[in-house]
Design brief:
With 254 residues, this protein is of the alpha/beta class. Helices cover 42% and strands 18% of the residues. It has a 7-stranded parallel β-sheet, with helices on both faces. Helix 3 crosses helix 4 and helix 4 runs parallel beside helix 5. The chain binds 6-O-phosphono-beta-D-fructofuranose. 6-O-phosphono-beta-D-fructofuranose (F6P) binds next to helix 4, strand 5 and strand 7.
Amino acid sequence: DLMREALGLKELEAALKERLRVGRVVVVAGDSDRFPWVKKEMGRACVARMKERLQPGDVVAVAGGTTMAAVAEMMTPDPQLSGVLFVPARGGLGEDVENQANTICAKMAEKAAGRYRLLHVPDQLSDEAYASLVEEPAVKEVLELIQSCRMVVHGIGEAVTMAKRRRTPPSEMENIIARHAVAEAFGYYFNEQGDVVHKVKTVGIQLEHLPHVEHVIAVAGGASKAKAIRAYMKRAPHSLLVTDEGAAKALVGE
Ligand code: F6P
């Protein structure tokens, strides 16, 4: 903590909380846009906060993305995590396998010596196929576990970057751009005001569920995500934000 004080991180956290009007933020040193190891530091900070909040037997829903992959990588076993069950937050969002919530969920559980359940729902489904799949007992059971989670941990992305990474069809891409989306989190796209302007259709956690989840942790850093973080946090002032100095400084306008 003395080190964090010397680096001015405590002050930066206070300034960021005020600027974003959110209750809790953690800022790690560095800018993950410039140095990849900073993502791991966010991962380490996130894991520490998860362990403070989790109790044996809890269900944790985890999202995908490279930042969440870093959280999984930094996970370690802990008595607090005994019997914790990891589940993906939502079904397929068009990510490559290494960035999918299923992959990250399994890896995190393995590192935590915990348990996991996966969600096998393809990305592009017709309405009928979708409706019958969510009635499948095996899928239904995992969806119920997701609904019962005590914690959600997720990333935040820049909207157009995410839409491109997911190879979003042109018509949807047009909508995302025309409606000025700047942020993306678990399949929802938000404008600068924090309003939802587009949504990827999939199963699992929906935005409306979040206020009912006891602990929600958002992990996102890098100066390039400043706008996205600001927009998304308007929507989630009660979430804990784990970020880095690069994003924090851009946000407080240094
Ligand atoms: O697609 C999953 C997801 O968590 C998105 O909701 C989010 O915008 C993105 O990944 C963040 O990815 P990264 O951490 O690689 O920037």
